[in-house]
Amino acid sequence: MKTSDFDYHLPESSIAQTPAEPRDSSRLLILHRDTGNLEHRRFRDVKLFLRPNDLLILNQTRVIPARIFAKKESGGKVELLLLRKRDDLTWESLVGGKGLRVGKSVYVEAGGKKIAVEILEMLDGSERLIRFSEPIEPYFSKIGNIPLPPYIHEKLSDPERYQTVYSKQTGSAAAPTAGLHFTPALLDEIKSLGVKIGYVTLHVGLDTFAPVNEENPEEHKIHTEWCELTQETADLINETKKLDGRVIAVGTTSVRTLESAMRTIGDGPRTMVNGQRSIVEKFVGPTDIFILPGYQFKVVDAMITNFHLPKSTLIMLVSAFAGREKVLETYATAIKEGYRFYSFGDAMLIL
């Protein structure tokens, strides 16, 4: 297995620059794994492929306005992209600017005051561990900007379009984009069919979208992200499996959370639920799970996902679920049929 096995050519014109309006008017490509057949639909048709006793798993993370502009004492501009919070004052951050070494300080103008930002530690590449002189989160509404991916060049007029309608737990550096297609009305329709909805949280880091540069993908170091599977959602999963329903993960982040929970349990003892051994149990903490072809999925029966970057860990995860050759064939068809790719693009339902 080589990283180049997951490469494909995408025309620049296929990269979506703006979200579909309304959200559920985006296109949906259905891939049936058992037959290899494809269907072309609109996203609102997703309900036609769901059944009573199915369980839809949504990642309720919310993107923080993590792009902040700071200044050097000399007046030079510095861009901070906050990635992960260590404590109230300390963050892992991408830092754009020259000469920003350990011990250097810049400042952010917020609320009529200067908030100092000290470089504490050099991390990978342009990542730094930084410390604010006071908590920065109360100022996000005034100085923070939503960090859109670099391949999106259009200005986003409404920042809420880069949030899911069910976002709740603040902490992501990027949106779980498969969920951007849902509307409150569509979710209500889905629930009326007897489909249950469960929530997980995984705070998305930008490293998730980074290309794999190693020739052997197994040598790639995937960064950790914080996630949580509550007992309430674990109970829904166990009940769904008992009733022969399907667990349908919305987005690779939901997939990683569910499979991370199973990895921590392993073959260890389970609790008993209504006289039956549980399938999955609650989980909270960091995950560095890296799903490659050959992986045996333990919870997820189907998934909804957007179209991913070449040679990324995400296209590798989807290939593990549906087969590499079939995924690349499907991507080729999507390009030919004019589907829109990446964060604001169209979606796939893999059954």
Write a structural description.
With 351 residues, the chain is of the alpha/beta class. The chain has 2 domains: 3-63 and 157-350, QueA-like (3-Layer(aba) Sandwich), CATH 3.40.1780; 67-143, QueA-like (Thrombin, subunit H). The chain has 6 helices and 19 strands. The chain has a 9-stranded mixed beta sheet. Strand 6 and strand 7 form a beta hairpin. It is globular, with a radius of gyration of 21 Å. The mean pLDDT is 92.
What order do the helices and strands come in, and which of them pair?
Elements: E1 27-31, E2 38-42, E3 55-59, E4 61-63, E5 67-71, E6 77-85, E7 90-96, E8 105-110, E9 113-122, E10 127-132, H1 140-143, E11 169-172, H2 184-192, E12 196-202, E13 225-229, H3 231-242, E14 247-250, H4 252-265, E15 272-273, E16 276-277, E17 283-287, E18 302-306, H5 313-322, H6 324-336, E19 347-350
Parallel strand pairs: 1-19, 3-12, 3-14, 4-11, 14-18
Antiparallel strand pairs: 1-2, 5-6, 6-7, 7-10, 8-9, 9-10, 12-13, 13-17, 15-16, 18-19
Order the strands across the largest sheet as they lie in space: 2-1-19-18-14-3-12-13-17
- How many DSSP helices? 6
CATH domain topology of the largest domain: QueA-like
What profile does the largest beta sheet have? Answer: 9 strands, mixed
Mean pLDDT over the residues = 92
**End-to-end gap:** 25 Å
Number of strands: 19
Class of secondary structure makeup:
alpha/beta
Helical amount: 10-25%
Could you say what the CATH architecture of the largest domain is? 3-Layer(aba) Sandwich
Radius of gyration over alpha carbons? 21 Å
Total discrete domains: 2
Q: Note poorly predicted spans.
A: none
What is the ordering of alpha helices and beta strands? EEEEEEEEEEHEHEEHEHEEEEHHE
Beta-strand content: 25-35%
> Given the C-alpha coordinates, what overall shape results?
globular
CATH superfamily label of the largest domain: QueA-like
CATH class of the largest domain: Alpha Beta
